[in-house]
Design brief:
Length: 566
């Protein structure tokens, strides 16, 4: 495998050695923009000069709040080239709660105090008002890019790409908390890309097909910086285009002979479910469909292979990776020689005793886990389990574990245990491979047994009548009750009360049959009513509050007639 370089150095090497090779194909509003490596480096230098011309302090933060467009990639790298610290933030969409979005970002802006924000349209005025002069420049991307490029000198690469220089901030937020700026340094990114590329067979011949937003770590690192550094080609479309026509993704694989993609578990289910059964597809060029960012599910992987095996899906192409923004991207991946392995375990031992006892596939009262592979060479992992238990928090340390959250010492201190990063994920190790159960904060303890919200949501999302990917589970403990109870909210397009009542009973039965859990309440809502975080994930915290308001009679009037309480 060829040497893995730092991001900016790699850009210049590719532009020198392969100037005409395609780095990006980006679809926006039905039109493709194609950028060669030479185009990218020219754009990087133009953007760097524009930003230097503003007089921004070296090492200060620049926020990009942009929709999907090719300029986002180049401007981000240009900020890096100028010695600044770029960070993508999600842009507001009609599907989000506007008040929540701006309130969350008001808190973030007050903490970080960026030297510049680059956005578009009406956002520019809103952001300028929020920062009240504390941010030196709030700029419209198109207007700023239309200005002449200043004739200013660029710093030497070694001045801005030192091992310990901050390369970027990745603002990571889950479903339960405010955003924290993960500090990632140039050498950490290089080391991570080297390890992941070796595990995933990522080289200059790779073609990445992606719809993932680049304000997420998987979109930013896995589907932008990693293939770019390795000299591959990136074919990128807007997430909303993918949602509108999922099989467009499959068409792009065939058209561009895609080799790699990263997808969350739900997307595998969505592609298999929404494909056009009258058509034939060709995925024979794909080296790896990598399942990441959510705990992988055996049924999802099995169904995807059943559906796309006839389309040329290679043996070993169904891969799983595990990681988080705090490790740049990943800490493990399954071997490319075979599909991810699956282990079946005794369900009562798992939920009640937190022990892993292997059983044969199909055994009664069993559940399954999909391996996330072996830990990468430059990282260590341990399971912080209680005595007599096999399941505990996954903790990691090593070359690309982040050094802290930006201007947030309290969160940084809380995140580490004697040098080990506390991932917040529950899991176990078996035969040298890591298995992820779910997030600690998302675990429900019901009458002494442990359940994971992602498991429940995955089960319910696969039930006909439920809008795929639109289910949320959480626990609520009533005053005086001896235990938490499991609550499930799901969206449906059904409107007939009888059909909704039948759907609720189906959900209750399927969940009990699969994991032996009786759901205390099930709320069926019309599509569009579950609340999302600013990064587009369903928010358990906000939806828990929604549920409590429904139960207490405080929900908006528009919800009450359509919500069908259990």
């Amino acid at each position: 495998m060829t040497m893995t370089r730092k991001v900016l150095t790699a850009a210049y090497v590719h532009a020198s050695q392969r100037p005409g090779d395609i780095a990006f194909r980006v679809l926006k509003d039905g039109a493709w923009t194609v950028l060669s490596f030479a185009d990218v480096v020219a754009g990087i230098e133009d953007w760097a000069r524009r930003l230097i011309g503003l007089g921004l302090p070296r090492g200060s933060v620049v926020f990009f709040v942009l929709k999907h467009r090719h300029e986002a990639y180049v401007a981000f790298l240009g900020a890096m080239r100028a010695g600044l610290v770029p960070s993508f933030l999600p842009y507001p969409t009609p599907k989000q709660d506007a008040a929540q979005y701006w309130q969350t970002h008001d808190i973030l802006l007050a903490r970080v105090r960026p030297s510049a924000i680059i956005s578009y349209g009406a956002n520019v005025g809103i952001l300028a008002g929020m920062t009240e002069g504390a941010c030196g420049h709030v700029l419209d991307l198109d207007g700023f890019a239309a200005q002449p490029v200043p004739d200013v000198a660029l710093p030497a690469l070694e001045e801005v790409e030192g091992d310990d220089h901050i390369a970027l901030l990745q603002h990571s937020s889950g479903t339960t908390g405010l955003k924290k700026g993960v500090i990632l340094r140039h050498e950490q990114i290089r080391s991570q890309i080297a390890d992941f590329s070796a595990a995933g067979d990522i080289d200059a011949d790779c073609v990445f097909i992606t719809w993932l937003p680049i304000y997420h770590d998987m979109g930013l690192i896995a589907c932008f910086l990693m293939p770019f550094v390795r000299g591959g080609s990136i074919v990128a479309i807007d997430p909303f285009d993918w949602l509108a026509r999922p099989d467009m993704f499959l068409d792009l694989i065939a058209e561009h002979r895609g080799t790699h993609c990263f997808l969350p578990n739900f997307a595998f289910s969505h592609l298999a479910r929404t494909r056009d059964r009258r058509r034939t597809y060709d995925v024979s060029s794909m080296r790896a469909f990598i399942n990441a960012s959510e705990p992988p599910k055996e049924e999802t992987m099995r169904r995807f292979r059943e559906v796309f095996g006839p389309a040329g899906l290679r043996d070993g192409a169904l891969q799983v990776a595990y990681g988080m923004a705090e490790t740049v991207l990943g800490v493990s991946q399954t071997p490319m020689s075979a599909d991810a392995s699956v282990v079946h375990v005794d369900l009562p031992a798992f939920t009640a005793a937190r022990r892993i006892r292997r059983v044969e596939p199909g055994s009664p009262r069993s559940t399954s886990f999909v391996s996330c592979g072996r830990i990468f060479p430059n990282i260590e992992a341990r399971i912080d389990a209680a005595p007599g238990e096999d399941i505990g928090e996954i903790q990691v340390r090593g070359a690309y574990v982040f050094s802290g959250y930006y201007l947030n010492d309290a969160a940084t201190t809380e995140a580490f245990d004697d040098g080990w990063f506390r991932t917040g994920d529950q899991g176990f190790m078996l035969d040298g491979e890591v298995y992820v159960c779910g997030r600690i904060k998302e675990m429900l303890i019901v009458h002494g047994r442990n359940y994971y919200a992602t498991d429940l949501e995955g089960i319910v999302s696969d039930i006909p009548g439920v809008k795929p990917g639109r289910a949320v589970a959480f626990g609520v403990q009533e005053p005086g009750a001896p235990s938490e109870e499991a609550i499930l909210l799901a969206e449906t397009e059904l409107v007939d009360p009888a059909a909704i009542a039948e759907l609720r009973q189906t959900i209750r039965k399927v969940v009990f049959d699969r994991v032996e859990l009786s759901l205390r309440h099930i709320e069926i809502l019309p599509v569009g009513h579950l609340l999302k975080t600013t990064s587009g994930k369903l928010s358990r915290k906000d939806n828990r509050e929604l549920y409590l308001s429904l139960r207490q009679g405080g929900a908006p009037v528009s919800l009450r007639p359509q919500a069908v309480p259990a």
